[in-house]
Design a protein that fits this description.
alpha/beta, globular, SRR1L, seven-stranded mixed sheet, Rossmann fold, single chain
Length: about 220
Amino acid sequence: AGAVRVPLSSPAGPPDRCVCFGLGRFSACPAARDQLAFLLLLLEELRAPPARCALFDPAFSAREAAALEALGLRLLPENEEGKHGVGGSATLFYMVHCGKALYNNLLWSNWSPAALSKLVIIGNSFRGIEERLLSRILERDYSYIAKVLKGTEELALPSHPRYLDTFNDTSVHWFPLDKLQELSPDVWNFVEEPTYQDCEDLEIIRNQDRAAAQS
């Protein structure tokens, strides 16, 4: 709760809606169950009804989808590949251990100071991504992560021996409007949709990939 309280008290106001990507098979995976439990506690912290939280993971089974709906949560009808616009509403994106392309797509779909300042992202540390990737790879494959780093505030979730594998490398990220406005205008002029043609470790299930698998 302490880790999320700072960004939730930002001038943009606390998020009144939530989107969760990549939760995983919580019927079989204990870590995914813990992540789901934490999501429900976050909604309580936000005083947001479960109906204000939408989820998507192409791995969800029919029984898992039914369980989420029984908890009052909503399911997104299709794979957006992370390209979910906030539409002017302060939104919490819960994306623990998602692929880098998913974060990059989310940033691209909200690429303006006004929109990004309404985002709070709980997911893989952007600082950790920067440290682990060669700068040329980060700028080529995940250019929106690379460009927003100087406009990002990040706070790591405190480690706990019981949940080392569940929330390791997880941080709360938010994007203060004043920091975003200090970035060069050139940063905002480039709005090309990511394609990942040269990416060798793409950790995302795309619409075309899923369609090919089903056929």
